[in-house]
Amino acid sequence: MARPSLRENIIEAAVERFHAHGYAATGVKDITDAAGAPKGSFYNHFESKEALAIVALERYGESRRFDMLCDESVAPLARLRQHFEFLRDENLETRFARGCMVGDIAVEMADHSEAVRATVQSSFTYWREALATAISAAQQAGEVSRAQEAATLASFVLNAWEGTLIATRTDRSAKPFESFFTMVFGVILR
Predict the structure, then answer these.
(1) Dihedral, CA atoms, 167, 172, 178, 184, nearest 10 degrees?
(2) pLDDT < 50 stretches in the chain
(3) Residue-number span of the structural domain to which 107 is assigned
């Protein structure tokens, strides 16, 4: 089996470090040390820490299991719930120490880097559209009311999720997840 490339090791380490500690608290040396790479080799693969952050955001997005939202073998409302249950369970495994890396970097960097802001915006747009597609399918299946447009509901659900992650980290408790699932699946998406 081929060894992972130094570039891949650096990306993986960056995702881990940015997600665990944030952008500002993570230095290039932290990333290269975690990747087992000499610090000088970083610049052979990335122009800057900011350039790496963009790649790390894209890689993080690939791990969010958006494929669940498109799985037509599962009823649309059930796939929406399963998607958020997956994300909740991942957060429970880290004992509330991490939120959404996209949201965290948005808060840290959106005002300081146009390239990072655009990547965050693109990430949220992709997620919102995937949610809207599943919500629309749930509306067509009669599982969700058509009183609101799917895109509006998707925006609300995504914003509620990001707020829920902040609350779980602040409270160090799963209670905000209970509120999210009760309101989103018991009230909003009915």
Answers:
(1) 30
(2) none
(3) 65-188
